[in-house]
Amino acid sequence: MTKQATIRCFPFGGVGEFGKNMMVYAIDNDAIIVDCGLGFPNPWHHGIDLLIPDISALEELNLTLHAIVLTHGHEDHLGGLPFLLPQLKLPVYGTPITLGLLAGKLEELSYKGDLRPLPELEPIAIGPFQIEAIPVTHSIMDAVSIAIRTPLGHIIHTGDFKLDMAPLDGRMTALHRFASLGDEGVLLLASDSTNATRGGSTASESSIGPNLTQEISGCRGKVVVTTFASNMFRIQQIIDAAHACGRRVAVAGRSLERNIAIATRLGRLTLPAGIMIDIKKTQSVADHELLIIATGSQGEVRAALARLAQNHFPNIRLGDGDLVIFSSSAIPGNERSIAGLFNHICRRGARIRHAGQTHLHVSGHAQGHELKTMMHLTRPRYFYPVHGEYRFLLEHKLLARQVGIDDGNIIIAENGQSVEIDDRGIRHGKPFQAGAIFVDGQARDEVDTMVLRDRRTLAEDGLITASVIINGNEGAVIGQPELAARGLLHQEVSESLLDDARQQLSAYLRKMEREQLTDQEFLQEDVRIWLRRWCKRTLKKRPLAVAVIIEI
User: Fold this and answer.
1) 255: closest CA among 79, 116, 95?
2) Could you report how far apart the first and last alpha carbons of the chain are, in Å?
3) pTM score of the predicted model
4) What per-residue confidence (pLDDT) applies to 48?
C-alpha cells in the first residue's frame, strides 16, 4: 500500500435506513466487510419475513474481499450471514458472544463457516489490513468498534455504542484507546446515528435492576417479563430481581433459550443455583413464586408472549393478580401490534407495566452528548454519519458542526452511494446497486420483485382467474371458460358480469387457429392478457389475472 492509495466506502445497508447494516471498506482494490445484517419488512411487503442486503454489486466492484468483521451480535448486524455467507465464503471475525450467536444460527442450516476470534485492543492482520477491535458498551455483550489502519490514517467504524459508565460486567467503552487513535490521526469516523435526535446521555443499563425488583415484589401472582432476546444484561437483571423476590425463572421462547445457553456456556451469565425451571414444569410452582421471561416484546403473533396473552400457551394461563412487564421499547412501526397485545393481556385480567410508565428500559445507543464526546476523542479529519434514516444522519451532521468539524469534511452518503477519500479530500464516488433481497419462509427462498408485485396486487386489487379446457387432438375448446373472482366486491363483479365475460372470451377463442389453441404456453399468456384488458376496460381495476389451461 502506498500513500497515493484511495480509500473507498460502500454502504450496502444501514445508511439512510434502520436495519440490514453492511459496509464495505476498500484500500485500492483490497476490501473487508463490516457487518452483514438483516432488516424487517414493512406492511407493504405482503408476507415477506426478512430483508437482507443485495450483494450482487460486489462482483461488479472488482474488489478482493478478505473477511467479514462483526461489531456485535444483533440481528441487524449479523442476521444476513446465514443467507449470504455460503455465497461469500469468507472468514468471519467476531468477539465470543457475537460468534456464539452466529454459530447457533449457522448450525440450524448445518453450515459451520470459518469463524475466527477477534481479540480486543490487539491489532491483527487480515490480508493487507490492520484491524483493531475497541470495546464499547451497548445493549448486547461484547460489542466493539472497528479501527482500520490505512496509509492516510485510521478509519473508525463505531458500530452501535453508548458510553455507559457503570456497565453490569465492568467492561467499559475504551475511551483511552479512542483518544490515542485520535492522537495518531483518525482519517474517517463513521458513527452510529440512531439517537442523534436526542440530547444528553443514555442512562446506564444498571439503572433498570432496582425498578424491576420493585415491580416484581409488588405482584401477588405470576410475573411475565418480556425484553429483547439478545440483551443478556437485561436478562441477568431480570433473573437477579426474581431471585431477590424468591421466584423461580422459566424461559418461553426458542431464541431466549438459545441465547441464555450460549451466554451461560461462555461464563457471561450468572444463574443462582436452582433458580431455573423448565417451562413445561411450571405447574409445580405457585404463581407468587414464578417468573417467566418471554419473547415477543414487539407483538410478534407467533412469539411466546402473544400465545400467553391469548391463552394458547400450553399449561399456563394469565389471570387476575398476574403482572406483565415490558422491559423494552417499541421499534417504530410495531406500535399497533403492541397495542393489540396489550388488549389481549388486559382481557386475561393481568396488569401491564411498561417503559412509558416507569424506568424499565434504556437505549443501547449514544445520544447527543455521547456522540459529540466520540468526536472530541477521535478528532477525525472527515466525518460520516451512518446507521439511521436520513433525518438522523442530518441531525448527526449538525452535531459534528457543533464540535468544529468543517462542513466540507462531513459527508452524507446513503445506501448505494460510494465515498472516496484520497490526498485530495473526501467526495461522493460512483453509485452502485444496494437494494434488498426479500426472504420468505423457513425455506429461505428469495422473493423477486415480480412475486412481491403480485402479492401487492392481490392485497390491493384482488384476483380474477379464467380456466379453459382444450381438446389437444382436435385443437378445440371444450365447453365455456370458467371465470372466478376473489377479493373484489360483488357489485363490482356480479355473476351477470362474469357471464358476459365468459361469452366474450368464448367468442375470442373461437376465432383462434388450431395451432394457437394447441400451443399451451401461447394460449395461457394470450388468455391472461385478454383477461387483464377486460378488467381494465370493464372494471376500471387491475386485479391479478391468472389463466389456467387444461389440456385433455
Assistant:
1) 79
2) 70
3) 0.82
4) 59
Instruction: Flag whether pLDDT at 167 surpasses 90.
Output: yes
DSSP conformation class of 480: E
CATH entry, 205-354, from 3.40.50.2000, 3.40.190.10, 3.40.50.10710, 3.40.30.10: 3.40.50.10710
For the chain, the average pLDDT equals 91
C-alpha to C-alpha distance for 411 and 85, rounded to whole angstroms? 30
Cα angle 308, 313, 314 (rounded to 5 degrees) comes to 150
Superfamily of domain 7-201+363-445: Ribonuclease Z/Hydroxyacylglutathione hydrolase-like (3.60.15.10)
Distance CA 75, CA 19 (A): 8
34 touches 25 (CB < 8 A): yes
In degrees, rounded to 5, the angle at the alpha carbon of residue 109 between the alpha carbons of residues 105 and 113 is: 70
pLDDT per position as a tens digit, 40-88: 765 444 445 688 999 999 999 999 999 999 999 999 999 999 999 999 9
- Domain range list for the chain: 7-201+363-445, 205-354, 462-551
Number of helices (H), then strands (E), belonging to the chain: the values are 16, 27
Q: Any idea which residue has 382467474 for its cell?
A: 465
Residues 6+ apart with CB under 8 A from 102: 70, 73, 78, 81, 92, 94, 113, 115
**DSSP notation for 89-144:** ---EEE-HHHHHHHHHHHHTTT----EEE--BS--EEETTEEEEEEE-B-SSTT-E
* Packed helices 368-378 and 390-402: angle between N→C axes, nearest 10 degrees: 60
CATH number for domain 462-551, candidates 3.30.230.10, 3.40.50.360, 3.30.70.20, 3.10.20.580: 3.10.20.580
Which residues sit opposite 419 in a β-bridge?
Answer: 9, 428
